[in-house]
Amino acid sequence: MYRRDTLPATNIHLMKSIRLHEISGSPPSTAIVIGSGIVGAATAYYLGKRGVAVHLLEATAPAAEASGAADGAVSVASKRPGTMMTAALRGVALYRDLARDGLLADLYKTRSTFIIAASQAECELLEKHREALLDAGVKAVALSRQALQKRFQVLSPNALMGVEVHDEGHAIGYEIVHRLVKASGAFVHRDTPVREFVEAGGRVAGVVTPKGVMTADAMVIAAGGGSANLLNLDNVLIPRKGQLLVTERAPALNRAMPGAIMSGRYLLSKGSQKGTGALPSRGLGLVIDPLRTGQFLIGGTREDFGDRQTNDIDAVRRILLAAVDLVPGLADVRLLRSFAGVRTAVIDGLPLIGRLPGRENAYVATGFEGDGICLGPLTGKTIAQMICGETPEFDLSDFDPARFMAGKVAA
Ligand SMILES: Cc1cc2nc3c(=O)[nH]c(=O)nc-3n(C[C@H](O)[C@H](O)[C@H](O)COP(=O)(O)OP(=O)(O)OC[C@H]3O[C@@H](n4cnc5c(N)ncnc54)[C@H](O)[C@@H]3O)c2cc1C
Predict the structure, then answer these.
(1) Ligand 1 neighbours (beta carbon < 6 A)
(2) Whose CA is nearest to atom 52 of ligand 1?
(3) Is 48 in a helix, a strand, or coil?
(4) Which range marks the domain in which residue 19 is found?
Protein backbone atom coordinates (compact mmCIF):
# COMPACT_ATOMS: atom_id res chain seq x y z
CA MET A 1 0.00 0.00 0.00
CA TYR A 2 2.93 2.32 -0.54
CA ARG A 3 3.19 4.63 -3.46
CA ARG A 4 6.51 6.14 -4.40
CA ASP A 5 5.61 9.48 -5.84
CA THR A 6 6.56 13.07 -6.14
CA LEU A 7 4.38 15.37 -4.12
CA PRO A 8 2.22 18.08 -5.67
CA ALA A 9 3.89 21.49 -5.76
CA THR A 10 1.43 22.88 -3.21
CA ASN A 11 2.95 20.65 -0.57
CA ILE A 12 6.47 21.99 -0.83
CA HIS A 13 6.12 24.24 2.22
CA LEU A 14 5.16 21.24 4.32
CA MET A 15 8.21 19.34 3.14
CA LYS A 16 10.33 22.26 4.35
CA SER A 17 8.80 21.96 7.80
CA ILE A 18 9.56 18.24 7.81
CA ARG A 19 13.22 19.00 7.30
CA LEU A 20 13.18 21.64 10.06
CA HIS A 21 11.71 19.10 12.49
CA GLU A 22 14.30 16.54 11.41
CA ILE A 23 17.19 18.88 12.07
CA SER A 24 16.02 20.36 15.38
CA GLY A 25 14.42 17.26 17.00
CA SER A 26 11.61 19.58 18.11
CA PRO A 27 7.92 18.61 17.98
CA PRO A 28 6.60 18.51 14.42
CA SER A 29 4.23 21.25 13.25
CA THR A 30 1.68 18.88 11.74
CA ALA A 31 0.62 15.26 12.11
CA ILE A 32 -1.85 12.96 10.42
CA VAL A 33 -3.48 10.35 12.64
CA ILE A 34 -5.27 7.60 10.71
CA GLY A 35 -8.23 6.19 12.63
CA SER A 36 -10.40 7.76 15.27
CA GLY A 37 -10.84 4.94 17.73
CA ILE A 38 -9.57 5.38 21.27
CA VAL A 39 -5.92 5.05 20.23
CA GLY A 40 -6.13 7.64 17.44
CA ALA A 41 -8.21 9.97 19.62
CA ALA A 42 -5.74 9.74 22.50
CA THR A 43 -2.79 10.30 20.16
CA ALA A 44 -4.50 13.39 18.74
CA TYR A 45 -5.19 14.64 22.27
CA TYR A 46 -1.60 14.32 23.48
CA LEU A 47 -0.17 15.74 20.25
CA GLY A 48 -2.61 18.66 20.45
CA LYS A 49 -1.44 19.35 24.01
CA ARG A 50 2.10 19.68 22.62
CA GLY A 51 1.02 22.26 20.06
CA VAL A 52 0.98 19.96 17.04
CA ALA A 53 -1.73 20.64 14.44
CA VAL A 54 -3.41 17.25 14.04
CA HIS A 55 -5.55 15.98 11.19
CA LEU A 56 -7.57 12.97 12.30
CA LEU A 57 -8.56 10.96 9.24
CA GLU A 58 -11.40 8.54 9.86
CA ALA A 59 -12.87 6.07 7.36
CA THR A 60 -16.39 6.56 8.74
CA ALA A 61 -16.97 8.25 12.13
CA PRO A 62 -15.18 8.44 15.49
CA ALA A 63 -15.58 5.26 17.57
CA ALA A 64 -17.23 3.46 14.65
CA GLU A 65 -15.38 0.19 15.23
CA ALA A 66 -14.01 -1.63 18.31
CA SER A 67 -13.91 1.44 20.56
CA GLY A 68 -17.64 1.87 20.12
CA ALA A 69 -18.48 -1.78 20.72
CA ALA A 70 -16.39 -2.64 23.77
CA ASP A 71 -17.12 -3.59 27.35
CA GLY A 72 -14.80 -0.96 28.83
CA ALA A 73 -12.99 -2.65 31.68
CA VAL A 74 -9.99 -0.54 32.63
CA SER A 75 -8.38 -3.42 34.34
CA VAL A 76 -5.17 -5.16 35.29
CA ALA A 77 -7.08 -8.17 36.63
CA SER A 78 -7.27 -10.09 33.36
CA LYS A 79 -3.91 -9.22 31.88
CA ARG A 80 -1.29 -11.74 30.95
CA PRO A 81 1.57 -11.57 33.49
CA GLY A 82 4.59 -9.69 32.18
CA THR A 83 4.66 -6.66 29.89
CA MET A 84 0.88 -6.52 29.39
CA MET A 85 0.22 -6.49 33.14
CA THR A 86 2.83 -3.78 33.67
CA ALA A 87 1.39 -1.70 30.82
CA ALA A 88 -2.15 -2.12 32.18
CA LEU A 89 -1.03 -0.85 35.59
CA ARG A 90 0.22 2.32 33.88
CA GLY A 91 -2.95 2.48 31.80
CA VAL A 92 -5.22 2.34 34.86
CA ALA A 93 -3.08 4.92 36.68
CA LEU A 94 -3.39 7.29 33.70
CA TYR A 95 -7.22 7.00 33.72
CA ARG A 96 -7.14 7.87 37.43
CA ASP A 97 -4.98 10.94 36.66
CA LEU A 98 -7.25 12.03 33.80
CA ALA A 99 -10.30 11.65 36.04
CA ARG A 100 -8.63 13.54 38.91
CA ASP A 101 -7.54 16.34 36.56
CA GLY A 102 -11.11 16.73 35.32
CA LEU A 103 -10.99 15.57 31.68
CA LEU A 104 -12.57 12.17 32.42
CA ALA A 105 -14.00 12.99 35.87
CA ASP A 106 -17.58 12.16 34.91
CA LEU A 107 -16.73 9.27 32.57
CA TYR A 108 -14.43 7.05 34.61
CA LYS A 109 -15.88 4.87 37.34
CA THR A 110 -13.48 3.42 39.93
CA ARG A 111 -14.39 0.01 41.29
CA SER A 112 -12.90 -3.37 42.19
CA THR A 113 -12.90 -6.42 39.93
CA PHE A 114 -13.89 -9.69 41.57
CA ILE A 115 -12.48 -12.71 39.75
CA ILE A 116 -14.71 -15.60 40.71
CA ALA A 117 -13.93 -19.32 40.66
CA ALA A 118 -16.84 -21.73 40.30
CA SER A 119 -14.89 -24.99 40.04
CA GLN A 120 -11.84 -26.57 41.64
CA ALA A 121 -9.80 -26.08 38.46
CA GLU A 122 -10.71 -22.38 38.44
CA CYS A 123 -9.68 -22.06 42.13
CA GLU A 124 -6.19 -23.32 41.25
CA LEU A 125 -6.00 -21.04 38.23
CA LEU A 126 -7.06 -18.07 40.31
CA GLU A 127 -4.48 -18.67 43.00
CA LYS A 128 -1.75 -18.73 40.36
CA HIS A 129 -3.08 -15.57 38.75
CA ARG A 130 -3.28 -13.80 42.12
CA GLU A 131 0.41 -14.49 42.70
CA ALA A 132 1.23 -12.90 39.34
CA LEU A 133 -0.89 -9.85 40.26
CA LEU A 134 0.82 -9.54 43.65
CA ASP A 135 4.25 -9.80 41.97
CA ALA A 136 3.25 -6.90 39.73
CA GLY A 137 2.37 -4.82 42.80
CA VAL A 138 -1.40 -5.07 42.44
CA LYS A 139 -3.62 -5.20 45.52
CA ALA A 140 -5.32 -8.58 44.99
CA VAL A 141 -7.04 -10.04 48.04
CA ALA A 142 -8.10 -13.70 48.18
CA LEU A 143 -11.62 -14.23 49.54
CA SER A 144 -12.80 -17.60 50.82
CA ARG A 145 -16.32 -18.72 49.99
CA GLN A 146 -17.62 -17.31 53.29
CA ALA A 147 -15.71 -14.03 52.97
CA LEU A 148 -16.95 -13.65 49.42
CA GLN A 149 -20.60 -14.22 50.40
CA LYS A 150 -20.23 -11.57 53.08
CA ARG A 151 -18.55 -8.99 50.83
CA PHE A 152 -20.68 -9.72 47.72
CA GLN A 153 -24.09 -10.70 49.01
CA VAL A 154 -25.85 -10.99 45.66
CA LEU A 155 -23.48 -13.75 44.46
CA SER A 156 -24.85 -17.29 44.19
CA PRO A 157 -23.45 -20.10 46.34
CA ASN A 158 -21.87 -21.45 43.12
CA ALA A 159 -19.00 -19.07 43.73
CA LEU A 160 -16.32 -21.10 45.52
CA MET A 161 -13.72 -18.39 46.07
CA GLY A 162 -12.72 -15.03 44.66
CA VAL A 163 -9.94 -12.53 44.29
CA GLU A 164 -10.78 -8.87 44.75
CA VAL A 165 -8.55 -6.73 42.57
CA HIS A 166 -8.68 -3.21 43.98
CA ASP A 167 -8.48 0.20 42.25
CA GLU A 168 -9.75 -0.84 38.83
CA GLY A 169 -12.28 0.99 36.73
CA HIS A 170 -14.69 1.19 33.86
CA ALA A 171 -15.11 3.58 30.94
CA ILE A 172 -17.44 3.53 27.95
CA GLY A 173 -15.19 3.55 24.89
CA TYR A 174 -17.19 5.88 22.65
CA GLU A 175 -17.62 8.43 25.47
CA ILE A 176 -13.85 8.52 25.98
CA VAL A 177 -13.22 8.85 22.23
CA HIS A 178 -15.60 11.79 21.87
CA ARG A 179 -14.17 13.55 24.94
CA LEU A 180 -10.58 13.14 23.73
CA VAL A 181 -11.36 14.21 20.16
CA LYS A 182 -13.14 17.34 21.38
CA ALA A 183 -10.33 18.23 23.78
CA SER A 184 -7.63 17.58 21.16
CA GLY A 185 -8.57 20.50 18.92
CA ALA A 186 -7.80 18.21 15.97
CA PHE A 187 -9.30 18.71 12.53
CA VAL A 188 -11.56 15.67 12.17
CA HIS A 189 -12.07 14.36 8.64
CA ARG A 190 -14.99 11.93 8.66
CA ASP A 191 -15.67 9.58 5.75
CA THR A 192 -12.02 9.89 4.74
CA PRO A 193 -10.47 6.43 4.40
CA VAL A 194 -6.75 6.38 3.77
CA ARG A 195 -6.03 4.22 0.73
CA GLU A 196 -2.24 4.32 0.53
CA PHE A 197 0.87 6.24 1.50
CA VAL A 198 3.04 8.63 -0.42
CA GLU A 199 6.75 8.35 0.17
CA ALA A 200 9.32 11.05 -0.39
CA GLY A 201 12.98 10.79 0.54
CA GLY A 202 12.52 7.59 2.55
CA ARG A 203 9.74 9.10 4.68
CA VAL A 204 6.00 8.74 4.67
CA ALA A 205 5.21 12.21 3.46
CA GLY A 206 1.52 11.91 2.79
CA VAL A 207 -1.59 9.83 2.47
CA VAL A 208 -3.93 9.24 -0.42
CA THR A 209 -7.65 9.52 0.30
CA PRO A 210 -10.68 9.74 -2.01
CA LYS A 211 -10.64 13.49 -1.25
CA GLY A 212 -7.03 13.91 -2.37
CA VAL A 213 -3.47 13.72 -1.04
CA MET A 214 -2.72 15.13 2.41
CA THR A 215 0.75 15.70 3.82
CA ALA A 216 2.15 16.25 7.29
CA ASP A 217 5.41 16.03 9.25
CA ALA A 218 4.43 12.90 11.20
CA MET A 219 2.07 9.98 10.51
CA VAL A 220 0.35 7.68 12.99
CA ILE A 221 -1.51 4.57 11.84
CA ALA A 222 -4.11 3.81 14.50
CA ALA A 223 -6.66 2.21 12.19
CA GLY A 224 -7.49 -0.90 14.25
CA GLY A 225 -8.32 -3.75 11.88
CA GLY A 226 -7.91 -1.36 8.93
CA SER A 227 -4.18 -1.26 9.70
CA ALA A 228 -3.83 -4.79 8.29
CA ASN A 229 -4.63 -3.64 4.78
CA LEU A 230 -2.60 -0.43 5.03
CA LEU A 231 0.52 -2.22 6.24
CA ASN A 232 0.18 -5.60 4.52
CA LEU A 233 -0.28 -7.32 7.88
CA ASP A 234 -3.17 -9.63 7.01
CA ASN A 235 -1.32 -12.62 8.42
CA VAL A 236 -0.38 -10.82 11.62
CA LEU A 237 -3.60 -9.07 12.68
CA ILE A 238 -6.58 -11.32 13.45
CA PRO A 239 -10.22 -10.22 13.87
CA ARG A 240 -11.80 -11.62 17.04
CA LYS A 241 -15.52 -11.06 17.45
CA GLY A 242 -17.18 -10.40 20.80
CA GLN A 243 -20.87 -10.30 21.72
CA LEU A 244 -22.14 -8.24 24.66
CA LEU A 245 -25.49 -7.51 26.36
CA VAL A 246 -26.89 -4.46 28.13
CA THR A 247 -29.77 -4.65 30.61
CA GLU A 248 -32.33 -2.15 31.77
CA ARG A 249 -31.62 -0.10 34.90
CA ALA A 250 -31.85 -2.06 38.14
CA PRO A 251 -30.52 0.41 40.72
CA ALA A 252 -30.96 -1.74 43.84
CA LEU A 253 -29.11 -4.75 42.43
CA ASN A 254 -26.53 -2.45 40.85
CA ARG A 255 -25.81 -0.78 44.22
CA ALA A 256 -25.55 -4.19 45.89
CA MET A 257 -22.59 -5.12 43.68
CA PRO A 258 -19.33 -3.79 45.17
CA GLY A 259 -17.57 -4.22 41.82
CA ALA A 260 -17.48 -6.03 38.51
CA ILE A 261 -17.49 -9.80 38.21
CA MET A 262 -15.08 -11.69 35.99
CA SER A 263 -15.36 -15.45 35.83
CA GLY A 264 -12.27 -17.61 36.24
CA ARG A 265 -13.01 -18.90 32.74
CA TYR A 266 -12.49 -15.39 31.40
CA LEU A 267 -8.77 -15.76 32.15
CA LEU A 268 -8.75 -18.91 30.03
CA SER A 269 -10.80 -17.51 27.16
CA LYS A 270 -8.45 -14.54 26.98
CA GLY A 271 -5.29 -16.62 27.31
CA SER A 272 -4.24 -14.72 30.47
CA GLN A 273 -3.51 -18.06 32.13
CA LYS A 274 -2.99 -21.41 30.50
CA GLY A 275 -5.60 -24.07 31.34
CA THR A 276 -5.72 -27.73 30.57
CA GLY A 277 -7.14 -28.79 27.21
CA ALA A 278 -7.80 -26.86 24.02
CA LEU A 279 -9.81 -23.65 24.02
CA PRO A 280 -13.32 -23.97 22.58
CA SER A 281 -13.80 -22.41 19.13
CA ARG A 282 -16.24 -19.97 20.72
CA GLY A 283 -14.83 -18.91 24.07
CA LEU A 284 -17.14 -17.48 26.71
CA GLY A 285 -15.59 -15.53 29.55
CA LEU A 286 -18.23 -13.97 31.75
CA VAL A 287 -17.98 -10.33 32.83
CA ILE A 288 -20.78 -8.51 34.65
CA ASP A 289 -20.21 -4.79 35.03
CA PRO A 290 -22.57 -2.62 37.10
CA LEU A 291 -22.60 0.63 35.09
CA ARG A 292 -22.84 4.21 36.36
CA THR A 293 -26.32 4.36 34.83
CA GLY A 294 -27.67 1.55 37.03
CA GLN A 295 -27.63 -0.87 34.07
CA PHE A 296 -25.48 -3.98 33.68
CA LEU A 297 -23.10 -4.70 30.84
CA ILE A 298 -22.71 -8.46 30.44
CA GLY A 299 -20.29 -10.22 28.15
CA GLY A 300 -18.85 -11.81 26.26
CA THR A 301 -17.67 -14.17 23.59
CA ARG A 302 -14.32 -14.53 21.83
CA GLU A 303 -14.90 -15.91 18.36
CA ASP A 304 -12.50 -16.36 15.50
CA PHE A 305 -15.29 -17.00 13.00
CA GLY A 306 -18.79 -15.89 12.06
CA ASP A 307 -20.52 -12.73 10.92
CA ARG A 308 -18.72 -10.02 12.78
CA GLN A 309 -21.58 -7.53 12.95
CA THR A 310 -24.39 -9.63 14.38
CA ASN A 311 -25.53 -11.35 17.54
CA ASP A 312 -26.90 -14.87 17.62
CA ILE A 313 -29.35 -16.45 19.98
CA ASP A 314 -26.97 -19.21 21.11
CA ALA A 315 -24.37 -16.70 22.33
CA VAL A 316 -26.98 -14.47 24.00
CA ARG A 317 -28.55 -17.48 25.74
CA ARG A 318 -25.20 -18.79 27.01
CA ILE A 319 -24.10 -15.38 28.31
CA LEU A 320 -27.43 -14.88 30.13
CA LEU A 321 -27.40 -18.37 31.67
CA ALA A 322 -23.84 -17.93 32.92
CA ALA A 323 -24.69 -14.50 34.36
CA VAL A 324 -27.79 -15.68 36.21
CA ASP A 325 -25.82 -18.65 37.50
CA LEU A 326 -23.47 -16.27 39.34
CA VAL A 327 -25.90 -13.43 40.13
CA PRO A 328 -29.41 -14.97 40.44
CA GLY A 329 -31.02 -11.53 40.86
CA LEU A 330 -30.30 -10.80 37.20
CA ALA A 331 -33.10 -13.21 36.26
CA ASP A 332 -35.56 -10.41 37.11
CA VAL A 333 -33.77 -7.77 35.04
CA ARG A 334 -34.81 -7.30 31.41
CA LEU A 335 -32.35 -7.43 28.56
CA LEU A 336 -32.31 -4.13 26.70
CA ARG A 337 -30.02 -4.81 23.78
CA SER A 338 -27.24 -6.99 22.43
CA PHE A 339 -24.36 -5.88 20.26
CA ALA A 340 -21.17 -7.20 18.74
CA GLY A 341 -17.76 -5.82 17.90
CA VAL A 342 -14.47 -6.98 16.53
CA ARG A 343 -11.23 -6.88 18.47
CA THR A 344 -8.02 -6.73 16.46
CA ALA A 345 -5.51 -9.20 17.86
CA VAL A 346 -1.86 -9.80 16.98
CA ILE A 347 -0.82 -13.42 16.47
CA ASP A 348 1.68 -13.30 19.38
CA GLY A 349 -0.81 -11.64 21.75
CA LEU A 350 1.05 -8.33 22.09
CA PRO A 351 0.04 -5.07 20.38
CA LEU A 352 2.13 -3.29 17.76
CA ILE A 353 3.26 0.08 19.12
CA GLY A 354 6.16 2.08 17.78
CA ARG A 355 7.97 3.48 14.81
CA LEU A 356 7.56 1.79 11.42
CA PRO A 357 10.83 0.11 10.54
CA GLY A 358 12.79 2.18 8.05
CA ARG A 359 10.51 5.21 8.37
CA GLU A 360 11.68 8.16 10.45
CA ASN A 361 8.35 9.90 10.79
CA ALA A 362 5.70 7.12 10.79
CA TYR A 363 4.31 5.18 13.73
CA VAL A 364 1.79 2.41 14.23
CA ALA A 365 -0.39 1.56 17.25
CA THR A 366 -2.80 -1.32 16.78
CA GLY A 367 -3.59 -4.91 17.78
CA PHE A 368 -4.89 -4.30 21.30
CA GLU A 369 -7.38 -7.21 21.21
CA GLY A 370 -9.51 -6.87 24.38
CA ASP A 371 -7.26 -4.32 26.10
CA GLY A 372 -7.44 -1.18 24.00
CA ILE A 373 -9.85 0.78 26.16
CA CYS A 374 -7.50 0.26 29.08
CA LEU A 375 -4.32 0.93 27.09
CA GLY A 376 -5.61 3.52 24.59
CA PRO A 377 -4.84 6.74 26.49
CA LEU A 378 -1.44 5.44 27.63
CA THR A 379 -0.59 4.43 24.06
CA GLY A 380 -1.63 7.80 22.66
CA LYS A 381 0.50 9.57 25.23
CA THR A 382 3.49 7.37 24.52
CA ILE A 383 3.27 7.76 20.74
CA ALA A 384 3.00 11.54 21.16
CA GLN A 385 6.11 11.49 23.37
CA MET A 386 8.03 9.53 20.72
CA ILE A 387 6.95 11.86 17.94
CA CYS A 388 7.96 14.92 19.92
CA GLY A 389 11.42 13.57 20.76
CA GLU A 390 10.64 12.88 24.43
CA THR A 391 11.55 9.67 26.23
CA PRO A 392 8.44 7.44 26.24
CA GLU A 393 7.28 6.91 29.79
CA PHE A 394 7.21 3.16 29.49
CA ASP A 395 9.35 0.59 27.74
CA LEU A 396 7.85 -0.33 24.38
CA SER A 397 10.47 -2.82 23.23
CA ASP A 398 8.18 -5.89 23.52
CA PHE A 399 5.62 -4.13 21.33
CA ASP A 400 8.06 -3.10 18.59
CA PRO A 401 6.33 -3.53 15.19
CA ALA A 402 9.69 -4.52 13.70
CA ARG A 403 9.11 -8.06 15.00
CA PHE A 404 6.69 -8.57 12.11
CA MET A 405 7.60 -5.77 9.74
CA ALA A 406 11.35 -5.83 9.37
CA GLY A 407 12.05 -5.66 5.64
CA LYS A 408 8.36 -5.19 4.87
CA VAL A 409 8.06 -1.44 5.01
CA ALA A 410 11.69 -0.53 4.48
CA ALA A 411 12.47 0.82 1.03
C1 LIG B 1 -16.78 -7.03 22.39
C2 LIG B 1 -15.55 -6.24 22.82
C3 LIG B 1 -15.28 -6.08 24.18
C4 LIG B 1 -14.14 -5.37 24.57
N5 LIG B 1 -13.92 -5.16 25.91
C6 LIG B 1 -12.83 -4.43 26.31
C7 LIG B 1 -12.60 -4.17 27.67
O8 LIG B 1 -13.38 -4.54 28.55
N9 LIG B 1 -11.48 -3.46 28.02
C10 LIG B 1 -10.59 -3.02 27.08
O11 LIG B 1 -9.59 -2.40 27.46
N12 LIG B 1 -10.80 -3.24 25.76
C13 LIG B 1 -11.89 -3.94 25.36
N14 LIG B 1 -12.09 -4.20 24.04
C15 LIG B 1 -11.04 -3.86 23.08
C16 LIG B 1 -11.06 -2.42 22.65
O17 LIG B 1 -12.36 -2.05 22.26
C18 LIG B 1 -10.08 -2.26 21.48
O19 LIG B 1 -8.84 -2.83 21.78
C20 LIG B 1 -9.88 -0.77 21.19
O21 LIG B 1 -11.12 -0.13 21.03
C22 LIG B 1 -9.04 -0.60 19.94
O23 LIG B 1 -8.98 0.76 19.63
P24 LIG B 1 -8.33 1.26 18.28
O25 LIG B 1 -8.34 2.73 18.30
O26 LIG B 1 -7.01 0.56 18.10
O27 LIG B 1 -9.24 0.65 17.13
P28 LIG B 1 -10.73 0.99 16.65
O29 LIG B 1 -11.59 1.40 17.76
O30 LIG B 1 -11.17 -0.18 15.81
O31 LIG B 1 -10.52 2.27 15.76
C32 LIG B 1 -9.92 2.23 14.48
C33 LIG B 1 -10.56 3.29 13.63
O34 LIG B 1 -9.85 3.36 12.40
C35 LIG B 1 -10.76 3.56 11.35
N36 LIG B 1 -10.12 3.09 10.12
C37 LIG B 1 -9.90 1.82 9.71
N38 LIG B 1 -9.25 1.82 8.52
C39 LIG B 1 -9.07 3.12 8.17
C40 LIG B 1 -8.46 3.76 7.05
N41 LIG B 1 -7.90 3.06 6.05
N42 LIG B 1 -8.47 5.11 7.01
C43 LIG B 1 -9.02 5.85 8.01
N44 LIG B 1 -9.61 5.28 9.09
C45 LIG B 1 -9.62 3.93 9.18
C46 LIG B 1 -11.98 2.74 11.75
O47 LIG B 1 -13.15 3.21 11.10
C48 LIG B 1 -12.01 2.97 13.26
O49 LIG B 1 -12.84 4.05 13.62
C50 LIG B 1 -13.24 -4.86 23.61
C51 LIG B 1 -13.54 -4.99 22.25
C52 LIG B 1 -14.69 -5.67 21.86
C53 LIG B 1 -15.00 -5.78 20.39
Answers:
(1) 34-40, 57-60, 64-67, 69-73, 173, 193-194, 222-224, 226, 230, 242, 244, 300, 341-343, 366, 368, 370-374, 376
(2) 70
(3) helix
(4) 2-66+174-235+348-405
